[in-house]
Automatic annotation (TrEMBL):
Annotated Pfam families: Cortexin
Subcellular location: Membrane
Membrane topology: Single-pass membrane protein
TM stretches of this protein: 15-36
Superkingdom in the source lineage: Eukaryota
GO CC list: membrane
Keywords from the UniProt entry: Membrane, Transmembrane, Transmembrane helix
Principal location: membrane
Native species: Rhinolophus ferrumequinum
Name of this chain's protein: Cortexin domain containing 2
Length: 55
């Protein structure tokens, strides 16, 4: 019998943890780019447009 033929067990908790960390890093990278764009040009990057009212 060869010992290397043992079935490899999949650790589900480790997979969830790695997936969570990867998604967290992706979210962090996206937030860094959005914040950098906001700092670079705050008026163009903002979602709320404040137009002066005529009243």
């Amino acid at each position: 019998m060869d010992d290397s033929s043992q079935p490899s067990t999949v650790d589900v908790d480790k997979g969830f943890a790695i997936t969570f960390v990867v998604l967290l890093f992706l979210f962090l990278i996206v937030m860094i780019f959005r914040c950098a764009k906001l700092v670079k040009n705050p008026y163009k990057a903002s979602f709320i447009t404040t137009e002066p009212s005529l009243s």
